[in-house]
């Protein structure tokens, strides 16, 4: 017998054909795709009064729309710690990076690709992207209802759904769950027969108390590699991670740290976000080459101050002095005063400086999670549930997450587009 709320339907299936739950990036994209594919009858329900909140916060308020579409898809999907294999097909055959770029430009959003591959609106204003999504939804006839939190979804015997929200129950032919990492989305997915993995943080910076980096906030390395010191001889598959590194007031951040946190999200969670990192400040040079360079410089520059001069100009002077401290160089020493043993200690630290970490911080105002609905339960061509026909799952509610650089939004655009089109096709009987 159907629950009482499923019997108290105040909107008929002919009036509402597709309901999208969640007013974020993938939700808006799904609603627009559904409306453009199947005509009228698309309702988007957002539980808060502020849709597209993450879009507006992304990229420090600039909105990192996606990553450079010139990157080949096989390389593009390698930026996903979870979902890389499964996204290759959708990005190639359904809605890929080139399609996303063309979509936004067609909506009047001029885009630019920066040197690191991140793609932003030319305006450098996230509002440009949010406004384009809002206009597109309005033009397509999407009924956006902000402040209407969904409390229940029931699968009906005739293949449709009853969605309870805002004091009423909507009957529809298809549902798109686009709730991100909201606990309510996990509960709704579970109520419909899925077993989503509870979310846990990905893409975060590390708190590093009492380290050689203390007092160096704002200092950066243009190229570094960061690794997690493994227990015993175990080696993690996706470490080290390489890229720019930023020293913060609390520890370390920047692409190298963020990528490491993403690829080792589960291991770090299991470790209670405590352990030891190893920082390689010269990832392009082997340990032997670094040692040879240090010893050669020591031999040819005996009268130069060791704490202020060295063979690696890419290392900022203040950081170089800390490495010398770590290697126990004598105070105010010239290179002639540095023993070979201490020079070896310096070379070793340059390749593997130990940094004990204790805790994590979110990346600015962004918060990305691992976990969600298992991809084995989803048809990746349409993002339709294999367990509940007519139910589609998109964006961060899927067990997909990418590294920094626009990859998470690309998952939203692709999954939203495919789910919306599929939901509309189902509603129209196609």
UniProtKB/TrEMBL annotation:
Q: Which cofactor is essential here?
A: FAD
Q: Which UniProt keywords apply?
A: FAD, Flavoprotein, Signal
Residue stretches making up the RsdA/BaiN/AoA(So)-like Rossmann fold-like domain: 17-421
Residues in a coiled coil are none
Write out the transmembrane intervals.
none
Pfam families per record:
HI0933_like, HI0933_like_1st
Give start-end of the signal peptide. Answer: 1-15
Q: What are the residue boundaries of the RsdA/BaiN/AoA(So)-like insert domain, all occurrences included? A: 200-368
Tell me what this protein is called.
Answer: FAD-dependent oxidoreductase 2 FAD binding domain-containing protein
């Amino acid at each position: 017998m159907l629950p009482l709320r499923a019997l108290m339907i105040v909107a008929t299936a002919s009036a509402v054909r597709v309901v999208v739950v969640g007013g974020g990036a993938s939700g808006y994209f799904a609603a627009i795709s559904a409306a453009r594919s199947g005509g009228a009858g698309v309702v988007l329900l957002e539980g808060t009064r502020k849709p597209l909140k993450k879009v507006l916060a992304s990229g420090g308020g600039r909105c990192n729309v996606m990553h450079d579409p010139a990157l080949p898809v096989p390389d593009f999907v390698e930026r996903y710690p979870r979902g890389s294999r499964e996204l290759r097909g959708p990005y190639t055959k359904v809605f890929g990076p080139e399609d996303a770029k063309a979509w936004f430009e067609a909506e009047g959003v001029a885009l630019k690709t920066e040197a690191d591959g991140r793609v932003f609106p030319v305006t450098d204003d996230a509002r440009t992207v949010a406004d384009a999504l809002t206009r597109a939804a309005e033009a397509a006839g999407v009924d956006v209802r902000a402040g209407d939190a969904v409390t229940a979804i029931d699968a009906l015997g005739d293949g449709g759904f009853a969605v309870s929200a805002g004091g009423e129950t909507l009957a529809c032919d298809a549902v798109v769950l686009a709730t991100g990492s909201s606990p309510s989305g996990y509960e709704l997915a579970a109520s419909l027969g899925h077993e989503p993995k509870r979310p846990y943080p990905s893409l975060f910076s590390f708190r590093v108390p009492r380290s050689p980096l203390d007092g160096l906030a704002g200092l950066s390395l243009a190229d570094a590699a960061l690794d997690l010191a493994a227990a015993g001889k175990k080696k993690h598959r996706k470490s080290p991670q390489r890229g720019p590194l930023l020293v913060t007031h609390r520890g370390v951040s920047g692409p190298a740290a963020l990528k490491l946190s993403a690829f080792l999200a589960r291991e770090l969670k299991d470790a209670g976000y405590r352990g030891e990192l190893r920082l390689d400040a010269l990832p392009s040079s082997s340990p032997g080459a670094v040692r040879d360079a240090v010893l050669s410089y020591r031999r040819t520059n005996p009268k130069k101050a060791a704490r202020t001069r060295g063979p690696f100009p890419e290392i900022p002077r203040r950081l170089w002095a800390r490495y010398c401290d770590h290697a126990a160089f004598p105070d105010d020493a010239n290179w002639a005063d540095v023993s070979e043993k201490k020079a070896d200690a310096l070379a070793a630290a340059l390749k593997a400086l130990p940094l004990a970490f204790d805790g994590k911080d979110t990346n600015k105002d962004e918060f990305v999670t691992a976990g969600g609905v298992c991809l084995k339960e989803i048809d990746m061509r349409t993002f339709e549930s294999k367990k509940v026909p007519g139910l589609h799952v998109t964006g961060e509610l899927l067990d997909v997450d990418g590294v920094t650089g626009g990859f998470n939004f690309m998952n939203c655009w692709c999954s939203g587009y495919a789910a919306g089109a599929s939901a509309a096709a189902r509603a129209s009987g196609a």
